[in-house]
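Try it yourself: sequence plus zinc ion, in.
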Amino acid sequence: MNWRLGRRVSFHFRAWNLWPSLLLAALLIGACQSSLAQEAPGSAPATSTLFQGVRIFDGKSAVLSAPSNVLISGNIIERISASPITIDAKAHVQPIPGNGRVLMPGLIDNHWHATLARVTPVQAFGDVTYNSLQAGAEATDTLMRGFTTVRDMGGPTFGLKTAIDEGIVKGPRIYPSGAVITVTSGHGDFRQLTDLPRTIGGMLTRMEQLGGSMVADSPDEVRLRTREQLMQGASQIKLTAGGGVSSPFSPIDVTTFTEDELRAAVEAAENWGTYVATHAFTPAAIRRSIAAGVKCIEHGMLMDEATAQLMAEKGIWLSMQPIPEALVQGFPVGTVQRAKAEEVSLGIPKTYELAKKYKIKTAWGTDVLFSRALAQQQGAILASMTRWYTPAETLVMATSTNAELLALSGKRNPYPGKLGVIEEGALADLLLVDGNPLDKIDLVADPANNFKIIMKDGVIYKNTLTK
Ligand SMILES: [Zn+2]
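Structure, out:
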C-alpha cells in the first residue's frame, strides 16, 4: 500500500517537473507548423523542375512534339515551350537535360487490386499486418514501373491510399472502390459450403471483416454496404453483376443482383456525386447493369454485337483487360476456375474488335491477382495490347483515356486536377523514357532500364539519368 502511494506521489511530482518542458515543446511545435505545412507530404521541400530538350508524347497525339522545355512548379506542369524557358537564378529549379528523350504522362492502370496483386489467396485471408506490408512494397514497385495512378477495383485499400498520400510509403495515386459488393454465391463470395447457412444480420465472414468484399442480398443491404464504402472514401463503387472466374460458386453464365438491387447502389453513389462499375461478362449481366444506371462495365468479355451497340449508344465505359495466358494457366488444369478462365479469355479478341467497331469508350487495366510475378509484368501486359491497337492508341488508352474514366468520380475524385496528359495546368505525373515508345512499345515492359525519371505529383521518385 505504502509502496503504491509512494509511486503515485513520485509520478505526480515528476509530471509537474515535466510540465514546463512540455509547454516549451508545444510552443516550438506550434512555431514550426507553418513551415512543415509548406512541404509536400513525405518529400523534400517543393522545388521546380525544368525538363530541357525533351520530345513530348502528350497522352493524346500519335506523334511526338518537336524538342521542347517543360517547367514543373510544385505539383503542376506550369509551362511548355519550344523556346528556352529562362528561370530566376534565385528560384530552386532543378534542370534536367533531356537530350531528345521522350517525356510522357505517368501510366494509369484502371483495373488494379493494390492489396491483392501480390499475396497468395491463402495469405489474403490471413495476417493483416503481413498483407499490408506486402501491399506497401507492391505499391512502391507499381510506381517504379511507371504506374503513377491505379483505379482499385476491390480490396481493403483505404489505409494504403492514406499512407501513400501522407508519404509513409511510396506508391501510385489510388482511386479506391473499397470492398466489392456481391450477392450470396456471387463473384466475391469466397465462403465454403460448410459456412452455410448464414443468419441474416449474423456475424461477418472473414472476407467482410477484412474489407475485401461484402455480401448483400436486398436493395437495403446494397444501399448500406455502398454507403459504408463511400463513408470510408470510395471514389467509385464496384458490384459484381454476374459470375466470375476465381470465386468457387459463381458460374460465369449467371446474373446475380436484381435490377432493383443494382439501382440501390447507383442511387447511393449518385447521391455522392459518383458512379457504379459492375463486374459483368455476359450480355445479360451487362444489359441489366446498364438498365440500372451503371456507368462502367468491367471485363465484358462475352458480350455480343447488340450489347456492344447498346454500350456505344448509351456512352457506357468498357474497362477491359488483355488477360495474359499466364493468368489462365495459374489455375490448375481440371478445376472449375481453369475452365472459366479459358472461356473468358477466348472472348477477349472479339470484345476488342467490337469495342473498336462501335467506338465504345474503352479503358485499359490488368486485373492482376495473387501473383507477384504477374504484377511485375504490368508494363508487358500493356505492351501486349498491340495485338489489337497501334502503340500510340495503346498509350493514349493507358494515359488520357484512362484519366477520363477516373474523372467520372466527380465530386469523389480524390485527386482533382488533370491526369494522363502533358499540358499546361495538368498534374505533374511524368516519365522520362530512353527511346520512343510510340515506335517501340516494348520499352514500357522494361521500366527498370527505360524509365530514367519517374515523377508523381511533381516529386521525383526515380532518377537514373546521372548513372
Ligand atoms: Zn478485378
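One thing you can check immediately is this: The first helix runs from residue 2 to 37.
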